[in-house]
Design a protein that fits this description.
It is built from eight helices and 39 strands. By secondary structure, it is mainly beta. The protein has a domain of about 100 residues: Sandwich (Immunoglobulin-like). Strands 17, 18, 21, 26, 27, 30, 31, 32, 34, 35, 38 and 39 form a twelve-stranded antiparallel β-sheet that branches.
Length: about 650
């Protein structure tokens, strides 16, 4: 049975055994408080009803003998809260705005009178969360769209938050270190499970996001990290809502790059749409107040794009071995002969060097072409347009007043046809990235004081990359010898560097396939129990992470550094030249490598926690218990696993 199948079976078992003491990183909000009479005495057995103003979904509970109540597992959004008790007028709190993981305190003072009378209170949004000591920041979808940011992703917003700073592909939360943060969508991970860096493209488009919550410090025990970014997806409501948009760019709106001869060409459209509402099939099913759907899609399109190339290429005289304009002598490293006029005979130039410069280096075309200057070649070349797709679908269903489920699937794919090498002889990168994120959630209200939620999450990432040039073809065309045997038929290049000269070397991105192929499976569940003035939570998270990768060494098809080491005349400071060493074919350093190996890692993690929040008074809440334990099963590569079974070799060479 595969890992995915085992997880599905486990989810089903948890669903039907809802009393298991497991816990998840819930995204639901909570309303809690105390019901009192005009004298300040507790009112037991008062009926508290929280109604979502957008979906009309109703959640009810009752106050205990201390007058304390808690309405848990509420979806974010506006609520109408009513409180009813025998002998008292009905109290109604309107416009109670909840955000993800909000713990909203709402104390109710009932007035003596007939039930037909009512006392209205305006709830509003929480400015300061008084029930916890968390430091957090929340932004709604409208705020993300209207903030003066330079892109439509979440990451620009993160950098505007105090105590947040980017670091090594992720972020530092109030000084946190690596692996001390986690990114989630609807409570399940969108981190890679290895470094805990986010799977970036999953947060690059915001049309499907309802809100983003950022926790910087003092998280509750259910969260294993110091920093937490929680993204909440949009869901449907009783009203049909939709949007269509186009963010437009053109050359008229762009400035010219300093080294480019013209403005970057191409028109760009960031287009998308979204829609959501109740599920309705005329004559068959009316899902108002019960079943809701939402979907969105975003992409980029436009005219042909371009790349501005501005390399520093060798002068025409240098290509012929003529360094006389520099006034330096050149030494033949093979014969010891010194060319005082700085001219290398054509017969002494290495034929491989000639083939390299003829294939890859154009002649200078900018400024004084007889003197080496930075970016002495300029050309704007057309390239393909990078066209990502981002799709999200979600469905929510209220089976009964006590049973609720939802499912959300996000998919992303994109290409990245950047021009490699900054030279016209190269071409576009071949890169096709795919990402997925899935969340399944089931909530059951077992009673006024007991609520259970189980979740399954899956995250997927694969980012294979290949340069435009084929390694074996380059090797054969240039006539290179002495490389490792049995070179694979993959993208690659004989890489050349001229340190200290300013000349553009030969380089393209290293081949990788699979490219950080990452699969994460999670099972989470939350059990919340309220007794008296205490709220208990306890449970666990189980996660399986796989990580497969094969990366070719940058030296696979050869690498060489050229300085003036071998053409310099001993005892003469101003002599020799790095490009002269190249023409003779004598590198200062050279390297080769063997074919890449596919590494396949597997990891299991188990997290457990228990906590108790005690409402001592309406103004004081103590967290009397906070315990968390994490168990990490060490990585096992497929080679180790294969050896333990005595089976075939699993770490294989890429072919």
């Amino acid at each position: 049975m595969s890992v995915a199948q085992r997880f599905c079976v486990f989810v089903c078992l948890l669903t039907f055994t809802s009393l298991a003491s497991l816990s998840a990183q819930t995204t639901s909000a909570t309303i809690t408080g105390t019901v009192r009479d005009p004298s300040g005495a507790a009112v037991p057995d008062a009926k508290i009803t929280a109604t979502n103003a957008e979906t009309l979904v109703v959640t009810t509970t009752r106050s205990n003998k201390e007058g304390v109540y808690t309405v848990a597992q509420l979806r974010e959004g506006p609520y109408l809260v009513t409180v009813q008790a025998t002998g008292f007028s009905e109290a109604i709190a309107t416009d109670v705005i909840l955000v993800a993981r909000d713990i909203r305190r709402l104390d109710i003072a009932l007035q003596v009178g007939p039930i037909e009378d009512r006392v209205d209170v305006v709830g509003g949004a929480t400015l300061i969360e008084a029930e916890t000591a968390r430091i957090n920041d929340t932004r709604t979808a409208d705020q993300l769209k209207t903030l003066p940011l330079n892109d439509r992703g979440v990451y620009a917003f993160l950098q505007m938050t105090p105590m947040m700073s980017p670091r090594n592909g992720s972020y530092s939360f109030a000084g946190s270190r690596t692996n001390q943060s986690q990114f989630t969508i609807d409570g399940t991970t969108m981190s890679d499970g290895v470094t805990e860096n986010p799977i970036g493209p999953l947060a690059n488009f915001v049309e499907s996001f309802q809100e983003v919550k950022l926790d910087l410090a003092n998280n509750s025990a259910e969260f294993p990290t110091l920093g937490q970014v929680t993204i909440i997806s949009k869901s449907g409501t009783n009203a049909f809502n939709g949007s269509v948009f186009d963010y437009y760019q053109s050359p008229v709106m762009r400035s010219r790059d300093f080294f480019a001869t013209a403005r970057r060409a191409g028109i760009q459209h960031n287009i998308g749409l979204s829609a959501g509402g109740p599920v309705e099939v005329p004559g068959l099913y009316n899902g108002r107040n019960r079943t809701f759907w939402f979907g969105s899609g975003e992409t980029f399109t436009g005219s042909a794009a371009s790349a501005a190339l501005n390399p520093t290429v060798p002068l025409e005289a240098w290509r012929r071995g003529d360094f006389s304009a520099l006034g330096i002598p050149i030494r033949n490293p093979f014969t010891g002969e010194i060319y005082n006029d700085g001219r290398i005979p054509a017969s002494a130039i290495n034929p491989v060097s000639l083939r390299i410069q003829d294939r890859f280096y154009p002649l200078p075309n900018t400024g004084n072409t007889t003197v080496l200057r930075p970016s002495n070649y300029n050309e704007t070349v057309p390239r393909d347009f990078s066209k990502p797709y981002y799709l999200t679908g979600r469905i929510d269903h209220n089976i009964t007043d006590r049973d609720r489920v939802y499912a959300r699937l996000t998919m992303h794919q994109s290409t990245n046809p950047v021009w490699e090498g900054n030279l016209p002889a190269f071409g576009q990168r071949n890169q096709f990235r795919q990402n997925k994120a899935l969340t399944l959630s089931y909530t059951r209200i077992l009673g006024p004081s007991l609520v259970n939620e189980v979740r399954y999450g899956h995250a997927y990432n694969n980012n294979p990359v290949a340069g435009p040039l084929n390694g074996p073809e380059v090797v054969n065309d240039l006539g290179l010898e002495g490389l490792a045997p049995n070179l694979p038929d993959i993208a690659g290049l004989y890489k050349v560097n001229f340190p200290g000269t300013g000349l553009t070397g030969l380089n393209q991105i290293n081949w990788s396939n699979p490219g950080f192929l990452n699969r994460a499976h999670q099972v989470q569940e939350q059990l919340t129990y309220m007794r008296g003035t205490h709220t208990f939570k306890g449970g666990a998270e189980i996660r399986n992470t796989s990580y497969d990768e094969a990366i070719a060494s940058g030296n696979l098809f050869g690498f060489a550094d050229f300085t003036n080491r071998y053409t310099a005349v001993p005892g003469v400071a101003q002599s020799g030249h790095a490009y002269a060493d190249f023409l003779f074919g004598v590198p200062t350093t050279a390297a080769r490598a063997f074919p890449p190996i596919t590494v396949e890692r597997r990891r299991w993690t188990y997290d457990f926690f228990v906590q108790d929040d005690w409402k001592v008074t309406s103004r004081l809440t103590l967290r009397t218990i906070r315990w968390r334990s994490s168990i990490l099963v060490p990585d096992r590569s497929s080679c180790q696993m294969a050896a333990s079974r005595g089976s075939r070799r699993s770490c294989r060479s890429a072919t």
